Amino acid sequence: MCRPAPRFLVCVLAVVSASSTARAQGCGCVAVQNNVTRGLVEGDLHGNALGARQWMASLGFRWFRSDRVFVGDVEQPALYGRMTNEVLSFDASLTYAITDRWSVTVDMPVSYGRRTSAYEHDGVDTYTMTAAGPGDLRLTADAWILDPRTAHRGNVAVGFGVVFPTGIAGATDTAHRATGPVERPVDASIQPGVGAWGVVLQLQAYLRIHAGLFAYADGFYLVRPQEQNGTEYTQADLEVRSAPLGTTPTRDSAPDQYVARLGLGYVLWPAQGLSMSVGGRVEGIPVHDLVGGDGGFRRPGAALAVEPGLTWSYRGNALSLTVPVAVYRDRVQSVPEAAAGQAAGPAAFADVSVLARYTRRF
């Protein structure tokens, strides 16, 4: 068993973990996979940080509703009519500390999503398509660079893992064409999973500035070597296509994804385990993957948000809430769009997301 961790360290871990769940297409149409950031070790203000041979169970939640359409960084409220994504997602994770510095985590997401639009149907009336089910399971290992029992001022943790293609990536629903209803795969923005193998790279860090004031940072990058996941793009059955033959993708991409966060936290009420944080958050998918091709249908881009948060922790329990508020969105041109001589297509972004997580250490 490790020695009692300093209260400051445990508060840092709880606040850094506050933004713990995201969702496929977490900005709306721009894809960000479930559970992309989470605290490495969460504890309370009255006991130990997660020590050797200890466990931590966690349940995360995220909700967002994206209904503002952007092309590039310019909002286009009338160009594509009403386009709305609403997603509720949960992820359950279990962490085991092999030593005081090394831990492993298994994380399983599930989600429900609904997408309403006109341009993906007959171009006149709006219709709604839905999907629900499990996402892609994730297994990661994390390690503190410095010994957390003695590194009271600051530390860095690095992680590496694998994403398994366990999620539903080919969910279907009724699409309404001018010729009548047809069964089609739903848009990638509400598919529960991506259905492709991935490699997880992540980092978490904190630095004590003064007393209960600290800086935190964490980041996540998901590398997917597979170019496409085999699911047909929702509109691939349409006969009229604006791009030259062979340049418009008919299959969904399996893109890389990323999240980065940077901010400050402050312990408001140490005796009651209450702390707050405020920082910046950027998430999205790149135009080019680190490994593999860049083809398939994808909506590359990013959303930048201001992210306030509150965390309460007590006797092995921790409850965190963050509400990222978007301040900048950008839907950039994909490789297939550039090859076809097309401008960047549309993407719907959320103004606000609600993220919450409960953890129990035992």
Account of the protein in words:
The chain has 362 residues and is mainly beta. The protein has one domain (7-361): monomeric porin ompg (Porin, Beta Barrel), CATH 2.40.160.40. Helix content is 4%, strand content 51%. The protein has 2 helices and 19 strands. The chain has helices at 7-16, 335-339, and strands spanning 55-71, 74-75, 84-97, 102-117, 127-134, 138-144, 154-163, 172-177, 180-185, 198-210, 213-223, 228-232, 251-253, 257-269, 274-285, 301-314, 317-322, 325-331, 347-361. The strands form 3 sheets. A 12-stranded antiparallel β-barrel has the order 1-3-4-6-7-10-11-14-15-16-17-19. A two-stranded antiparallel sheet has the order 8-9. It has a two-stranded antiparallel sheet with strand order 12-13. The longest helix has 10 residues, at 7-16. Mean pLDDT is 85; it is low at 1-6, 18-26, 39-48 and 240-246.
Order of strands across the widest beta sheet?
1-3-4-6-7-10-11-14-15-16-17-19
CATH architecture: Beta Barrel
Tally the structural domains. 1
The CATH class label is: Mainly Beta
- C-alpha termini separation: 12 Å
| Structural class based on helices, strands and sheet pairing | mainly beta
In N-to-C order, the SSE pattern is HEEEEEEEEEEEEEEEEEEHE
Chain-averaged pLDDT? 85
Instruction: Tally the beta strands.
Output: 19
Looking at the structure, what is the overall shape? elongated
Q: What proportion strand?
A: over 45%
Largest β-sheet summary: 12 strands, antiparallel, barrel
CATH superfamily: monomeric porin ompg
Helix content: under 10%
